[in-house]
Amino acid sequence: MALLTTGTTTGLVIDCGNLETTVLPVRRALSQRLESLLLNHGRFIPPSHLQLSLAPQNPVPQSVLTPSLLENLKATVLFCSPLMMDKREVQSDPIAGYKNFSSATDVYYPVVLEDGTKATLLIPGWIRERAAEVLFEGDEEDEPSIIHCILNAILRVQSDLRRPLMSSLLLNGGTSLIPGFQSRLKQELLRVMRDPTKFEKKRYASLLRLQNSVRFIDSPEDNKGAGRIFMNNVRGWIGGSLMGSLKLSGEELAREKYKGVVTDWSINHWTVTPPSGTSSSNNSEMTASSPT
Predict the structure, then answer these.
(1) What are the residue boundaries of the structural domains of the chain, listed by start?
(2) Which stretches does UniProt call biased (Low complexity) (predicted)?
(3) CATH code for 2-25+138-235?
(4) Is the pTM above the cut of 0.85?
(5) Is 133 left (phi over 0), alpha (psi -120 to 50) or beta?
(6) Collapsing DSSP states into helix, strand and coil, what is residue 175?
(7) Residue 81 contacts by C-beta under 8 Å, 6 or more apart in sequence?
(8) What is the pLDDT of residues 75-95, one digit of tens each?
(9) What is the separation of C-alpha 25 from the centre of its chain, rounded to a whole number of angstroms?
């Protein structure tokens, strides 16, 4: 559905959301990595009339790092570093490596506590720059990174489709909107193809010659497709709307004949299908109806 928003129907969509990608689950979510780094290395400045540089600093309380706050931090504070690090340095001492290879500035981020008072989080610059490294790390076999997920997906298609897919990559999902994500993703793909490890050279031997075909549909540099008309986090929804309006999803089902329920995602509640022959409609469930 997301491909429809670019004016093309062929491509490999990488839906990088909060917890997983559509290619293969990424177990170590970005939110979990960010939370862990803030708990261990961030600082919490309680409500105070002192200047932030003079106010007392405490460890970050777990209760402050709500899912909503973590999502806001991902959207407004984090970015992907354009500099790739030596994998050996990361494995030996990742935190020291992140600190040494970071030039980002620290950020004071205001937060509102449960009692309505205002506090502040001090987020080190290296966390802002390197928290997203979790997306490009991982075990090559048991816990693949996004790069390996993409290559594994392309390996599963017919050989004559691999080059068109590699040259028609499309990012989808809110996490892919982190500044620098797309360019870093391309760098990592090219790194695997130009300087693969022994495992990568053996597993992806048939894909290494495609290094000159790595392109993104909506990239101005690659100049393919309709360009970035819609943002990554809404492409799936707009594509679904296009499918409905263009009658691409098959025969419509009249409301009177539909006996199931669909989820009302607006209130973050998953519904349970009622017993056969019954239907319900309340705050957490709504009966589906077809357009007229």
Answers:
(1) 2-25+138-235, 30-134
(2) 273-292
(3) 3.30.420.40
(4) no
(5) alpha
(6) helix
(7) 101, 102, 129, 130, 132, 133, 180, 184
(8) 899 999 888 877 666 667 788
(9) 11
